[in-house]
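Amino acid chain:
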Amino acid sequence: MKNWEVRERKKIREFERERQRSEERKTEEKKEARRLREFLEDYDDERDDPKYYKYDLLGRLFINAVSNAFSLVDHSKKFEEYICALSVRNALKTHSGNNYHSEIN
């Protein structure tokens, strides 16, 4: 019986500690929510964006994306020119071959 009473007192203390931790967590969550709400209410894009956003990084990423796009356009133009040159070359071969055969006959 005595062991059971000791165990019950121990469990009561554990439950009390857990309840206190839970209350502390809720209090901290309320404080954090209040801080975030105040931050968002006071946030001014023009004033605070340079502080919280890395425009240099965004600018570099944008420049890289644009240069890659121009590079792709340049490559596609070169490819089109190559295809055009091949088709002209093939047309000339076919045309000159036909003339050669027609001159022989």
The mean pLDDT is 80. The chain is about 95% helix and 0% strand. Residues 1-44 form one domain. The longest helix spans residues 55-104.
